[in-house]
Specification:
The chain has no helices and eleven strands. With about 130 residues, the protein is an all-beta fold. Strands 2, 4, 5, 6, 9, 10 and 11 form a seven-stranded mixed sheet that branches. Strands 1-3-8-7 form a four-stranded antiparallel sheet, with no helix packed on it.
Length: about 130
């Protein structure tokens, strides 16, 4: 299992930017290579709504995929040397307000929640108009 801890959330005005980070550590092993074999994703959940897919990245960073609302505004990236994944969010809108979650899978990434074995606790992003 991989333990995930998100950070970087906060309050920002519409049009602003935030960079979310997710730090990963292996729960049961000291094998630092586990993270580099894990596909990762960001999901978000707005108040009163279901959790939804935002973006995903393959284990080596060679493949990424974005939900339609994230294309052109959000960028997912990863640093395998430091076991971190990032979500750079630009031109934020009030509708981007949500709790953002980092998720990990040892399979190929998916847009579906059940495709991921490990989840972080989330970080709140609030975009004011």
């Amino acid at each position: 299992q991989v333990q995930l801890v998100e950070s970087g959330g906060g309050v920002v005005q519409a049009g602003g930017s935030l960079r979310l980070s997710c730090a990963a550590s292996e729960r049961t092993s000291t094998n630092s290579d586990v993270f580099s074999k894990t596909d990762l994703a960001w999901f978000r959940q707005a108040p009163g709504k279901e959790r939804e897919f935002v973006a995903a990245i393959s284990w080596n960073g060679g493949s990424t995929f974005y939900e339609y609302f994230a294309k052109g505004r959000f960028t997912i990236s990863r640093d395998n040397a430091n076991n971190k994944v990032y979500l750079q969010m630009d031109r934020l809108l009030p509708e981007d307000t949500a709790v953002y979650y980092c998720a990990a899978t040892r399979k190929n990434y998916s847009i579906r929640e059940h495709g991921y074995e490990d989840w972080g606790q989330g970080t709140q992003v609030t975009v004011s108009s």
